[in-house]
Amino acid sequence: MENQYLRDKEASQYLGVAKSTIWLFSKQGKIKAIKLSDRVTVWAKSDLDAFIASRMAVA
Fold it and tell me: What distances in angstroms separate CA 6 from CA 1, 11, 57, 58, 59, one per listed residue?
């Protein structure tokens, strides 16, 4: 299965949170950001799915 990568806007829509929350979660180490260049950062959809699953297990 091919891994899909999302930019901040797409990742925020996928998780249902604000773009600033995506960056906050990355800074806190809750989700892993992948820096492709100085201006391009992406998140792996599989990492976002794992984050969602971990949050569901807590709830």
Answer: 16, 5, 24, 25, 25
